[in-house]
Amino acid sequence: MFGNCKPAKNKNLLWAYLLCLLYTTINAQEQRFGTGLKFDESLYNKIPQSVPLVTRSFTALPKAYSIKGYAPTPGNQRSQGVCVGWASVYGARTIANAVKNNWKHNTAKINQNTFSPAFVYNQIRYNEKCQGAFIENAMKLMNSYGAAKMSDFTYDYTTCLKTPNTYVYNKAKNHNTPNVPLKYGVNELEVKATDLKQASSTKRFTIKRKSAETNNTIVTNNTPNVKIDVGFCKYYALIIGVSNYEDKNIVDLNGEPTKDAQALADVLIAKYGFDTTNVTILKNPTDSQINRSFYQLRKKVSKTDNLLVFYAGHGNYDDASERGYWMPSNANMEFEDNIILNTTIVSHIKAINSKHTLLIADACFSGSIFKSRSYIQEEKNAKRKYALTSRKAITSGTLKTVPNKSVFIKYLLKRLHENQDSYLSARKLFDRIEEPVMNNISNTPQRGVIHGAGDEGGVFIFIKKI
Question: Which of 12-16, 101-105, 126-130, 178-182 has the highest mean pLDDT?
């Protein structure tokens, strides 16, 4: 229905615009009702055109057609400027579902199956005052995550800050249009459909994707004539290296973490899908600078994007309080001031609405980030695993100290430089560095889920430049 990273400019999008204008007009009749549609013509013009229809013509369409029989009973958005949510989800998505199920004039059935405007709007809101949103973002979110029923995520006219939990996301998945990123060449696909009575049917087929020269969905980075596949949308990175400390009781690390941070940024930009403008490098930052960078990523990273966070520097774990933390350059260890607690890191990661977030930490006691240190089994199909949200971490060790001259970062950079796979999963990268690290230091690298941050079993994929 819509493109993988951007919604197609097709009749569904136009319907949503028309419905949004209709709902806005109705609500504007009384000043106490909010509106909220944000329109940016330049943003709209950047949306790629959908593939032209070649199987039928629109010349035989009737002059007029009413969808009133499929529409739900109008709701009330009250003072919030959430017309985009009401129009695209409560209106258009509910109508589409009613048409699909042939519920014409069955108002009771339609009202029982309305979709939640809050599920979409609360995740794409223009600001925290609940006033406005871009309808393009509503289309993208429904394309990626589906739509939740009103019964699963009710509309609260007093706030737009409530966000869906994992249960709601899983329910919403039943009402989306899935996209399958295709590699160049032959793709073997399998589609399995299951009805309400659990009867199922499977269809296998082959799709051949032509070479990059004939594919319009590409971006160009700063290197001339180098194109990368954007079926996985944008890649952001926050790379932190702390070598020097203001507190004289903290041993400086002779510049190693800052050099490691720069080396990682260089390989990500040169060999993978990370654009220079989307990579932030913090060298010897304070706790405030780290926190602010996380907050800035909240504004930049969308639900279809990917985020890599790297930290190299001192870390510590306090047995008495059972707290693990990073130590920024202004950390004061006498009172444990200006530290970045693991709980703070998890909160930051949870608040950034990325598709996938991968945390790589090369610090003492970095393994304390895990609530559970058990490994999880991943399927080998990277594209299938990419469809699920992930929040995972790779650390250089457990609750132990690690050497200043990092063996972990040595093999991490080596494997990224030498990798020949077009799609390198975080799990495969970990498998390639685990054994050589263990063979050279008395520590065991760890990989696992960042507990409580929204992981749904997906996997972070590094996309190698073509």
Answer: 101-105
Q: For residue 209, which amino acid is it?
A: R
Residue 72 has a CB neighbour count (10 Å cut-off) of 19
User: Where does the pLDDT of residue 7 fall: very low under 50, low under 70, confident under 90, or very high at 90 and above?
Assistant: very low
Residue 109 CA to residue 226 CA, distance in Å, equals: 53
Helix or strand or coil: residue 445? coil
**DSSP annotation string for 246-286:** SSTTSPP-TTHHHHHHHHHHHHHHHHBS--GGGEEEEES--
Both structure tokens of 296: 């800035």
208 vs 186: CA distance, rounded Å: 4
Greatest extent of the chain over all pairs of C-alpha atoms, in Å: 81
- Looking at residue 51, what is its pLDDT? 46
Q: Which of 50-64, 146-160, 321-335, 354-368 has the lowest mean pLDDT?
A: 50-64
Q: What angle do CA 371, 374, 379 make, to 5 degrees?
A: 120
Identify which of 349, 356, 381, 366 has the alpha carbon closest to the alpha carbon of residue 447: 366
Percentage with pLDDT > 70 across the chain: 69
Note whether 415 and 455 are within 8 A (CB). no
* Assigned token pair, 320: 């008495």
Highest mean pLDDT among 108-117, 250-259, 373-382, 403-412: 108-117
Q: Using one digit for the tens of pLDDT, what is the confidence trace for 261-294?
A: 999 999 999 888 898 999 999 999 999 999 999 9
Helix ranges (DSSP H) in 272-402: 287-300, 342-351, 382-386
**48/10 Cα distance (integer angstroms):** 10
Among residues 227, 246, 403, the alpha carbon closest in space to that of 312 is found at 403
- The percent helix, strand, coil of the chain (3-state, each to 5) is 35, 20, 45
- What tokens were used for 157? 């006219």
Long-range pairs for 314-317: beta carbons < 8 A, 24 or more residues apart: 314/242, 314/245, 314/250, 314/251, 314/253, 314/363, 314/364, 315/361, 315/363, 315/364, 315/365, 315/366, 315/368, 316/364, 316/365, 317/365, 317/368, 317/399
Give the C-alpha separation, 348 to 453, whole Å. 9
Q: 82 and 38 in contact (C-beta within 8 Å)?
A: no
- In angstroms, the CA 71 to CA 296 distance is 40
Separation of alpha carbons 402 and 257, rounded Å: 12
Q: In terms of DSSP bridges, do strands 218-220 and 227-229 run parallel, antiparallel, or are they unpaired?
A: antiparallel
pLDDT tens-place string over residues 230-267:
345 789 999 999 999 998 888 888 888 899 999 999 99
